[in-house]
């Protein structure tokens, strides 16, 4: 990753951030270690790096944001990722959430709707030792050519559970997605119990940018 150096000071700020997330209720030590390992400041333009280790979202252009670290940790914890899991992320954005996923499994596929963000993030992540498989397109339709997936993570708010994503889950696999209207969504965890049966758990409220695409907000 061609970006700012990761200094002792940055690592200390990440340790402080991890402790803050632990206080806020994140319990999975592997997820906390992943947050602690990814240099979030490298996903910010040079003039804004002082904001990197605050627990808040931040604009990255193109009407998108880099997610709040708590949100990244919360969604990742719900996925319960194993080291061999094949994971699909809908909404690559800055690539920060994708980089956290890569700390937990090397098998990460990610799709971004916005071509400008896709090009920028593809360049940023190209230098990783184990880069993800990145795609530009309609994430609401998933990646049927690479399905099935053990875990699917959606980083944008959807009006419903997108049927294409449900169909691309392996039996026993989990989908984590914010579902609601344009201003508020509730985090939903769906498990595919069998070919035709899904269980659904509704959790905390969040606010995400809208999921664009045919099975999202259009």
UniProtKB/TrEMBL annotation:
Biological process terms in GO annotation: methylation; protein repair
Pfam families linked to this entry: PCMT
Gene Ontology MF, one: protein-L-isoaspartate (D-aspartate) O-methyltransferase activity
Active site feature: 67
Gene Ontology CC terms, in alphabetical order: cytoplasm
Subcellular location: Cytoplasm
HAMAP family (UniProt xref): PIMT
Protein's UniProt name: Protein-L-isoaspartate O-methyltransferase
Organism encoding this protein: Hymenobacter lapidiphilus
Higher taxonomy: Bacteria, Pseudomonadati, Bacteroidota, Cytophagia, Cytophagales
